[in-house]
Amino acid sequence: MFPIMTTTYQLAQVNIGRLTAPLDAPEIKDFTNNLDPVNAVADASDGFVWRLQGDTGDATDIRIFGDKWLLVNMSVWRDVDALKAFMYQGTHRELLARRREFFERLSEAVTALWWVPAGHRPDVAEAEDRLTRLREHGPTAYSFTLRKTFSPPAA
């Protein structure tokens, strides 16, 4: 008899934004002043698992695609519903509505989701791969969006 192998999956997400001004500029002070409070809410949210952090406690010192103006946010959640519940509430929702004040509008996909085995922590190279694949092929089970999601792989 073979042992039954079960793997639980969690949802990884990456989103990027190209700053409209340097992080210390007064034009984006509302964004930078709210990083710690928004991250604290995320950390305490039901379904939150992990988020990318650099030396500053957030990810503002980490870059993606070799672009000094691109900020990266990456986290892992229990599932899509947990991520959505956080995204569309409170200060995060308010800042999301104001994102054009802080970030340029990019023509390519800036957010990608994918399933990871429980305990896996994605790195920036993995996020770049998922965003690139989404940009090239559209939503697939490999890399998808909030508008077109896929179920986790079968256990």
Tell me about this structure:
This protein starts with 8 loop residues before the first strand and ends in an 18-residue tail after the last helix. Strands 1, 2, 3, 4 and 5 form a five-stranded antiparallel β-sheet that branches. By secondary structure, it is an alpha+beta fold. Mean pLDDT is 90; it is low at 1-6. It is built from six helices and five strands; from the N terminus they run βααβββαααβα. The chain is globular. Strand 3 and strand 4 form a beta hairpin.
The helix-strand sequence is: EHHEEEHHHEH
- Tell me what portion of residues adopts beta-strand conformation: 15-25%
Rg is: 16 Å
Termini, distance in Å? Answer: 18 Å
| Helical residue percent band | 25-40%
Dominant shape: globular
Q: Could you describe the largest sheet, including whether it forms a barrel?
A: 5 strands, antiparallel
Which structural category do the helix and sheet elements fall into? alpha+beta
Number of helices: 6
Total strands: 5
Give the overall pLDDT as a whole number. Answer: 90
Low-confidence stretches are 1-6
